[in-house]
Amino acid sequence: MTTRTPTAPATTLWEETDSPLGTFLLAGDGRTVVATRLPGQWAKEDVPEEWVLAPGAMAPAAAQLDEYFTGARRTFDLQFVPSGTPFQLAVWRALLTIPYGRTASYGDIATKVGNKKATRAVGMANNRNPIALFIPCHRVIGANGSLTGYGGGLEMKSWLLDHERSVASGQGPRG
């Protein structure tokens, strides 16, 4: 989410894009992203009726996602406009501060948003992150270092964390 407050596009466009993990759904207007859906976690019949299928409309986001998977991109240069409560928005902003290839605990994020006892609420906000991967909820782990819940499943979360660690250490992207 940027320093200025971008507004959601008047018409939400969406498209599919392939990745090493499967097919993502990207929604927004190209430079502004309002939603993603992880591979295996969406079906065309579940896409909101008012969204317009527009192959190529999300090309900037799709290209950056591809660069992420090839190891050429560690941060995204897009505007994110998630819809949520003020607390959820604060949590999602905090997620954007977790460095690529690193993790933070739910407690770390709770402390960052000003309520160190709100770990469960942080978990719920993480679970409702509408722009998964771009807003890196996969980088949040349990206090003991264990992998905990992820919308795409723990196998996907593990893959993403291993991919980022591999790229950050200079070993290259996962295949």
Question: How would you characterize the overall build of this protein?
Answer:
The protein has 175 residues and is α/β, with parallel strands linked by helices. Helix content is 30%, strand content 16%. The protein has 5 helices and 7 strands; from the N terminus they run ββββαβαβααβα. Strands 4-1-2-3-5 form a 5-stranded mixed β-sheet, with helices on one face. A two-stranded parallel ribbon has the order 6-7. A hairpin with a 2-residue loop joins β1 (13-19) and β2 (22-28). α3 (106-112) packs across α4 (119-127). The longest helix is centred in the last third of the chain and has 15 residues, at 154-168. The protein is globular and about 45 Å long. The two termini are 29 Å apart.
What's the main sheet like?
5 strands, mixed
User: SSE string, helix = H, strand = E?
Assistant: EEEEHEHEHHEH
- Helices, by number, come to 5
Write down how many β-strands occur, each being a DSSP E stretch of 2 or more residues: 7
Strand and helix layout:
Layout: E1 13-19, E2 22-28, E3 32-37, E4 52-53, H1 59-70, E5 79-80, H2 86-95, E6 104-105, H3 106-112, H4 119-127, E7 140-141, H5 154-168
Parallel strand pairs: 1-4, 3-5, 6-7
Antiparallel strand pairs: 1-2, 2-3
Helix pairs in contact: 3-4
Short description:
The chain has helices spanning 59-70, 86-95, 106-112, 119-127, 154-168; strands at residues 13-19, 22-28, 32-37, 52-53, 79-80, 104-105, 140-141. The chain has 175 residues and is of the alpha/beta class.
